[in-house]
Amino acid sequence: QDAREVHYPHNDVLVVKINYGSTQLWRVLVDNGSAVDILYFDAFKKMGLHENDLKPAAAPLYGFTGDSLMPMGMIELMVSVGTFPRVSSIMTQFLVVDCPSAFNAVLGRPTLREL
């Protein structure tokens, strides 16, 4: 049923929604090439989180173009993925970045491994 709109062969990205408490976060990119989980600052603010909730993050992020970006900080959130009765909930450590994106968050290898 999930693949009913997919035309094969395809190379579409996988975009899902996750739950943080009672908040649904849409447009979450699943990226098995990402070594970190990312939460974009616009989504961070819309979730009602505050900058004083962030822990320091000292290392910059590097993209495939070689550009670097310094995270604002990191935050650990309990996220749930799936629909009842198949739901997995795990603590996820996100790096919060302030840059434009079509997505609200990126789930990378750390969370994919735990799920």
3D structure, described in words:
With 115 residues, the protein is mainly β. It has one domain (14-113): Cathepsin D, subunit A, domain 1 (Beta Barrel). The protein contains two helices and eight strands. The chain has helices at 41-46, 109-114, and strands at 14-20, 23-30, 37-40, 61-62, 68-69, 73-83, 86-97, 105-107. The strands form two sheets. Strands 1-2-8-3-7-6 form a six-stranded mixed beta barrel. Strands 4-5 form a two-stranded antiparallel ribbon. Strand 6 and strand 7 (86-97) form a beta hairpin. It is globular. The two termini are 21 Å apart. The model has no long low-confidence stretch (mean pLDDT 89). InterPro entries: Peptidase_aspartic_dom_sf. This is Aspartic peptidase domain containing protein. It comes from Parasponia andersonii.
